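Q: Hi! First time doing this. I have a protein sequence and I read that you can turn it into a structure. Is that right? Here it is:
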Amino acid sequence: MKVLLVVHHRFDLWKLPAWFGQRLAQQYPDLQSVQRDSYEGIETHLRDAEAVFTISLRPDQFAAARTLRWIHTPSAAVHQMLFPELIDSSVILTNSREVHGPVVAEHVVALMFALAKKIPQSVLLQQKCIWGQETIWNEGQHPQEIAGATLGLIGVGSIGGRVARIAASLGMRVIAVREHPEKGTPDGVEQVFPLTEVDQLLGQSDFVVLAAPLLAATERLINADRLAHMKPSGYLINVGRGPQVDQLALVEALRTRQIAGAALDVFDREPLPADSPLWNLDNLLITPHTAGLTDKLWQRHYELFSENLRRYIAGEPLLYVVDKHKGY
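A: Yes, that's right. Below is the predicted 3D structure, encoded as structure tokens:
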């Protein structure tokens, strides 16, 4: 069996480390593994690869992969893979949602506390050597308590489910939107709404967290109309995907104090352009797509992929199989 490992990215942490393929070869000595850090010329290796570990694959590359049976992506998002030829094929697609879920959930909780306690404003005042007690209290939304606040989750998968449990343990009331409410109420969640009733969730929530996959139904989900349904004292947090929020509408809502503030980790364009109006908003906290960063990242990826490889060889069900038609 041949496995092709190919990951290329401008950001060093997201590049596949050399030890990954070496350790895989040691653990599975009968496996033919090929590791590349560039997509250039990979068609030669794709022709006889049975499994591919990669962030993305183009339709023409997929067409060259005549013996391909399984694709594993080290990302949680899979929208970049879902072209018709792959969707309609028998090739299995697995993702790494449980690798990223725990650390992104921690980031969400950190952002909630930062917004509630106005930490970014305190940092700015510190940099100016200003004792800003009155400023922190008088300008904008007052500092808030997390306990007793309502958290509205849009998406209760690997990230949202963990956030729900942590938030409930902190004394928050947790409500959620999920595509299939009939699946039940996840741990820590008091009430579940269908996506068609997202406005009800927005109107009740002190904090709204986007942690849903990017689908047709979630693209530009948070637009001007939806922002108008939020509380004036409410905060928006997005750790899902940039296109799920209409950024221009959000800029206007923040400038006019239609909502109290927001925190964004993902954007339409990344890196965020220097001329983006988002940079100049004093009630917006920007983290540069760092929610999933951890020094344990590739060890977790290896544990998941090597376990799935063992299952694949043994003919057992794989972990975290994506429904290619649903997109998650």
